[in-house]
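Can anyone check this?
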Amino acid sequence: MPRFSANLGFLFADRSHGERIAAAAAAGFPAVEMHWPYEVPAATLRTALDRAGVRMLGINTPVGDRARGDNGLAAVPGREAEFAAAFDLALSYAVALGGTAVHCMAGVVAPDGREAAERTYVANLTAAADKAAAAGKTILIEPLNPRDAPGYFLADVEQAAAIVQATGRANVKIMFDCYHVQIVGGDVIRRFERVRPLVGHVQIAAVPSRAEPDEGELAYPAILAAFEAAGWDGFVGAEYKPRGRTEDGLGWMAAYPAAEAAAVAMGDAR
């Protein structure tokens, strides 16, 4: 059965980070993941995780300067030192929080600079992977669709697979976000099967709305069953933008009775 983690960048977002962790636990999620938790001391978040009894999965590297149009730094030539500092901060949080992975955000690159960007990206990821391996952590890279992330260097799963292989590091993996994959090319199940050995995390959301995964183009019960048949037994991140209050939209879990029963049991135990 799928094991779902709550992405607290979108879920329970009307609360503080610590309150989001508690709310995810109360809703029955056994794990959480975050985008950018850096305004909260790591020790404070670790206390909230321990109190709630949930585990931390991944966090993102800082994006850089939004005012400059930054959306990550890992593939941006000339900003290697900034990326290294951003990664070191993210890794320190992952270690302190007991997290499993750091998502290294690639960044926005001009069309005529993609060759240099790829070299920069591979070099930065290789160095980051060596640091992460020493701490027992995984590096994730995630293709983002150009509709939501114009100019983002990493846009499709096949490109991500080539980048992972170019690093030559076993702890560099793909974050397979079904929402982005569907928008960039579709054929979600077959594309997952082709890159399955390189996948380090899975995320879901409705397409095209990015709301709860119970509407739109993708039939997630069938998709996740196919992923499981292909050997996926890791967590599935619920990274969607709720239509309203997060708790009011969790009915989608009823499509996965075993997961829902586990969630209910966890909620009752609390």
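Reply from J.R.: I decoded it. Residues 260-270 have pLDDT under 50 and may be disordered.
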